[in-house]
Amino acid sequence: MVADVLRALPGFLALCVGAILARGLSLVVGSNELLLAIGLGALVTNAVGVPQRLEPGVATHSLWLAAGIVLLGASLTIESVLETGSTVLVLMLGTVFVSLLTVEAIARNVAGLTGKFSSLLAAGAGICGVSAVVAVGGAVRARETQIAYAAGVVLLVDAITIVVYPTVGSLLELPANVFGVWAGVSMLSTGPVVAVGFAHSEVAGQWATMTKLARNALIGIVALGYAGYYTRQDSDASVSLRLLWANFPKFVLGFLAFAVIASVGVFSPTQQVSLENAVDWLFLLAFVGLGTEIRLDELRRTGITPALVVIGTVSIVSVLSLAVALAVL
Amino acid sequence: MTRDPIGGLLDATLGRWSELDTDWQGVLVAAVIGLLVGEIGVSIPW
Question: Is the backbone of residue B44 left (phi > 0), alpha (psi -120 to 50) or beta?
Fold first, then answer.
């Protein structure tokens, strides 16, 4: 097991170098360090590729994202978490519902895709990107090629939204809370949501993360619903609960635990600053690694029809959710 | 049984670690950082 750590060490050090480079570059060119981190990762993987011996360490990027989100809870209080409140909750649930239905309808009736593949795309667009695709794919026993294909579509849309959302947010001069909630309810994967949120502002990043975490918490319910739909069998309660728990993103619990701890004043203001700095470094590590997942050759192979279904749905949901967010927030 | 108790302990700990999924690993990393900052007073610069 020590060998596993040693195997991951070179790649982890590469992430550290990328994070420091992104931070340094942001000071020089004045761009956001998180977007630069993603750009650096994408540049390396598409220009020269990630060397095989760095791959185990680079693959740890999802761990640093989870740790960063958990620690982010310490910069919030439980009151501010609850303040996201019923309005944002209704907006989020409405967006998930519309996304699922729209992808299912277009994919099955217009694009002529198979039922399970349509459901994988719907889960990816409606809940939380690749994680939802994998969770629902496992629950409905989809073919591995379908899961890989749907995950490719999600990554393609992620790559587009990482560029489009900050541009639109800047052009429309969206307020921080509106931008954060908008990104949280309508973008696909958690990493890009957090990245564009904090690229806009600290406040937008917090809103984006909280909204996205609430949305991610629905993953188990959606996987369970699809499993029930496709098996058309009554499953006993223990199996259902097990499926719900297996698909529940556990770092949400850590996030809430840190929010509670911060609410009772465990951390001093100086310690809060240190924890916020830790979050920034963890996100930088995560986003350098996330950038290496954006492989242009794989995106090209994904094919145009499934991608158009999801891009069309995200566009519709994005416009609708932004209009509602501007009206009610 | 291993003759090297420290190596054995390390192996057992890391063995459990690799059994955890990424979410729980993230929670534990965050908890360690929280303890280092909150209890030991480690300062993290930016």
Answer: beta
